Amino acid sequence: MSKVIVHIDLNAFFVRCEEIKDPSLENKAVAIGHEGRGGIVSTCSYKAREYGVSSGMPMFKAKQLCPHLIVKPVDFRFYHALSDTFKNFVRRYTSKVEEASVDECFADFTEVIKKEKNAEAFFKKLQQDLYKETKLKCSIGIAPTKFLAKMGSDYKKPMGITIIRKSEISKILYPLSIDKFYGIGKKTAPRLKAMGINTIGDLANLCNSNDPKLLEELGKFFVVIKDWVNGRGSDEV
Q: From CA 32, how far away is CA 152, in angstroms rounded?
């Protein structure tokens, strides 16, 4: 029987922390980082993203795209405190929790979910309870492997819940752009597109046909990706 692996990702976490401190920032274009030409956008609100602002962008460029952008300095102490609160909240449901970063974690809910009649309703309540207690917003991916759970949490943001069963991989993941594939970076994606691989489905088809050019491009990662696109991979938390 497949496990129930969950990936919980806090939405625009640093910005959300600042909104919790100062509710007047909600629904505004906000970036976390430093002003000036040397400043870099650490993360930004969804409203700022509507103007083309993105993480890793020079702050001066972000201000050009969005002149009314509100810039807040990083407050790591506060962010880590809320991160600990979030992960302790998840541990109330299961002890099998793996920290992935300050704003995300994997958790094994296999035993927990056996007691529930409606898995989606259960996770919706978990999501809502987290918000009520902490004001943190999250997206949740539920799947039999860690890779699929991660892809699920990225699928709908903010406040999304996505269940990916093995039988639904082709329907949910294959139409997505290759840029959306977790583990394929900004340097590799353009090279894959140059090979005619524009979607995850294109990648899966070439993996399953053991395409020699793709094998040469991906090296050892080829076997890992082939497993991932076919619903195999790590389920250990």
A: 26
